[in-house]
Amino acid sequence: MKMILLRKFRVLILMVFLIACSMHIMIDLLPKLERHSNSGCSCSHTPSEEPQSWGKQSWPNKHTLRILQDFSNEPSSNVSSLSLERIPVTGDKTQALRRLEHYGQRGDRKRQFIQDAAVTKNMPARSSRLSALYDHPLYKRSPPPLTDEDTLFNVNTDIRFDPKAADQEWNGEGNMDEFSPTGELTADTYPNWLRFHIGIHRYELYSRHNPVIDALLKDLVTQRITSVAMKSGGTQLKLIMTFQNYGQALFKPMKQTREQETPPDFFYFSDFERHNAEVAAFHLDRILDFRRVPPVAGRLVNMTKEIRDVTRDKKLWRTFFISPANNVCFYGECSYYCSTEHALCGKPDQIEGSLAAFLPDLALAKRKTWRNPWRRSYHKRKKAEWEVDPDYCEEVKQTPPYDSGTRLLDIMDMTVFDFLMGNMDRHHYETFEKFGNETFIIHLDNGRGFGKHSHDEKSILVPLSQCCRVRKSTHLRLQLLAKEEYKLSMLMAESLVRDRLSPILIQPHLDAMDRRVRQVLNVLAECIEKEGYSYVVEDDLQRDQGTDHAHTAPRQR
């Protein structure tokens, strides 16, 4: 009798094990089975209507995606950005160029388009303070005439656009049948993300009054999202979103409210990334006249229709769940804050986020990643060399590329930019490889700015106080923004009100920027008193146009 019971017990255990294995296999294959069974159905379930019906949703059908853009901010030291992404297989560059051929144009017409955008008068109506700012002589300086070596794209000059090659329409971006007398599409009919890419050159990401930028900002919040995937690498969750017109953007979801400050016990490297900081950084960069931040706009996203239902990323899809408050949530995969305890939840399925337009794909326009000389230690106890050596800048000025050209002055501009935001997380920066060392720094990844309005982190200004160098144009603009009629806080408020998620910053953050402008000017005043005006201020306004990036050695003490 005992033997019979023992055998039955073993059989029961075996059956339970087999059932568990079968269920595990079925759960793993569920998305594929649903995709196969629903392949003929174009309907999708609305999350707000059936928030609990996860098993009823259909897995998104695969469709061809152009890989024409990339947003790289992975850490590395003095290496090409290409090495920071997945190494492309042979032929990737050819394939990317072929995709670009659908939207290409002759080189001479392209350069004319860039020049026309730089001088166009069709800029959108601005508020009075912004209009007065952009009418000021400091904001009238134009870049020198552009050559093939100065434009990011000057290859494939015989490219023609083939309208039959496109399988989707460019809604709201011109008429597909609008051809020039020669049978070519005019530049105005190109999608705005491509017009933005075409306009990049040695001296700036976009021209001061380029109407394409405002059109691109509109696209970021209105274009239909067709695909979503998690961005690999990074400490916090970021999503790559592809739009109906093939444009792409980096989505950073909302993690904190506008009123929340970074806790005082948080280290800078464990702070949250804020979506509103990305939006505000873009507007601040424009007001400072740097134009080195890719266009960023805020958007309210439906987490079910615009993320879960369109993603082909299984790892992302499996992290969706319904919270006890009946809100749609997900958490994805990343190094920090990607768990059920740190899930991103909608209300009930709507979530705010920032969308940053992608730069051109690395296969078409390589970027070089540089280690910031004033990089922090990213350690709880250790200090970086610049924090203990007051003469650290003298060593930097003898090291390429800071020993010639304007790279050191670009670092000073970036220092001012970061201090005004309170951003301590500038460990690396990027430049376009084509332009060598004679070009600007791209200000990417600004999500850790605007964390504390009640505290001014003076250590961010150490590069400025150690080197005592600044462009004359930057110095004069800071003096201008300190005046009551051009007050930075007022200009930022007027610029940010146009964003869909306005208000982007609460008033204490705006007031903090005014306070910090005065502190930057105080540091420069001390430098001038100690070293003299001619040593501290580099006169970039009196130089002949085009020589701002000449090989001139930094001044030594």
TrEMBL record:
Any one cellular-component term (Gene Ontology): Golgi apparatus
Keywords annotated in UniProt: ATP-binding, Disulfide bond, Glycoprotein, Golgi apparatus, Kinase, Manganese, Membrane, Metal-binding, Nucleotide-binding, Serine/threonine-protein kinase, Transferase, Transmembrane, Transmembrane helix
Start and end residues of each FAM20 C-terminal domain: 320-536
Keyword Nucleotide-binding: yes
Domain of life, per lineage: Eukaryota
Active site: 425
InterPro entries assigned: FAM20 (IPR024869), FAM20_C (IPR009581)
Residues that bind Mn(2+): 273, 445
GO molecular function: ATP binding; metal ion binding; protein serine/threonine kinase activity
GO BP term (any one): enamel mineralization
A Pfam family reported for this protein in Swiss-Prot or TrEMBL: Fam20C
Positions of transmembrane segments: 12-31
Named cofactor requirement(s): Mn(2+)
Family, per entry: Belongs to the FAM20 family.
The protein, known as: Extracellular serine/threonine protein kinase FAM20C
Organism: Scomber scombrus (Atlantic mackerel)
Lineage: Eukaryota, Metazoa, Chordata, Craniata, Vertebrata
